[in-house]
Design a protein that fits this description.
The protein is of the alpha/beta class. The chain has helices spanning about 15-25, 35-45, 50-55, 60-75, 80-85, 110-120, 135-145, 155-170, 210-215, 230-240, 260-270; strands at about 85-90, 95, 125-130, 150-155, 175-180, 190-195, 245-250, 270-280, 285-290. The radius of gyration is 21 Å and the shape is elongated.
Length: about 290
């Protein structure tokens, strides 16, 4: 815990607290100290960033200052900003996140946008395998009002998170949540689209991940086996039994895995029209295919 001493006096303005927060986070090696300090101060005060610009010389209430200090302490220890604030923006929607839930990433938006483009102006049934926070399932339900989505995960924390996030974003009536280890407990039916951002980090690479990821995010949502391809193999093998003819299978992949996933799809003999899409950073990020048998 950061203690109030020295420069941390009992009375501080917003500007003073913001500057001191930047200093503390910078000294701790946090990558974006100014941004993080601003987010934490606004969250502690329950205000928007513009409030800091307009009222920077105003004095903080003691309870706001104490809350801000507690949040800074967690961030200094490496706790992800999203776990401290309890939320993350994705596809212009707000999602609750917390320990035990993989934090939504911006690169995953390409996967959602790909399915939206393929599904727009039609009714479709979609299955989101390894749903985690539900960011994919909930976003698809929100932006595809004619579609229904089944969100699947084996982790109890994820199931609870999907239900909360579906409610927050007003799509509870079109998001069915199923607790299942891959397809083992999924009702036997055919879907128009199966989409997945599965665990894909190689087991041997987890120890070298950033501290925020390695020490705080759930390893079950990261570990994709020795070569990172375990879940892709399992989903590719089983998905045809749950996919309508000409239905789509769409994956997010690690930056260097798209061609391996493409090869798995091609060798299965049940998929055609296999495509690889690049994210905004120019990385191969999404692989899609159509069921041909």
């Amino acid at each position: 815990m950061i203690r109030i001493s020295g420069d941390w006096c009992c009375k501080m303005t917003y500007n003073e607290a913001y500057r001191k927060g930047i200093q503390i986070l910078k000294e701790a090696g946090i990558e974006a100290p100014a941004s993080d300090a601003g987010v934490l101060l606004c969250h502690a005060a329950g205000c928007e960033r513009i409030f800091l610009y307009a009222h920077g010389d105003s004095e903080l209430y003691d309870d706001i200052l104490q809350t801000y200090l507690q949040m800074l302490s967690k961030r200094v220890q490496g706790c992800p900003l999203q776990y401290i604030t309890g939320k993350q923006e994705f596809m212009s929607l707000i999602f609750e996140v917390g320990p035990g839930i993989l934090i939504p990433r911006q690169e995953t938006e390409l996967l959602v946008e790909t399915v939206i483009d393929a599904c727009k102006d039609r009714k479709a049934e979609i299955l989101d395998m390894c749903t985690g926070s539900g960011c994919i399932a909930v976003s698809l339900a929100r932006y595809l009002p004619g579609c229904s989505v089944t969100a699947v995960d084996k982790m109890e924390q994820a199931i609870a998170a999907v239900r909360r996030n579906a409610e927050i974003n007003g799509v509870s009536d079109r998001v069915q949540v199923v607790r299942s280890d891959l397809f083992s407990a999924v009702p036997q039916k055919k879907y128009d689209f199966i989409v997945s951002n599965p665990p894909y980090i190689r087991s041997g690479d987890i120890a070298g991940l950033q501290r925020e990821v390695r020490d705080f995010e759930p390893v079950e949502a990261l570990d994709g086996g020795n070569d990172g391809l375990f879940f892709y193999r399992e989903i590719i093998r089983t998905a045809p039994a749950y996919t309508k003819s000409n239905g789509m299978l769409a994956f997010e992949t690690g930056y260097d895995q798209a061609w391996d996933v493409e090869a798995l799809m091609a060798s299965a003999g049940t998929y055609g029209d296999i495509r690889i899409l690049k994210d905004l950073a120019g990385m191969d990020r999404v692989v899609t295919a159509r069921l041909i048998t």
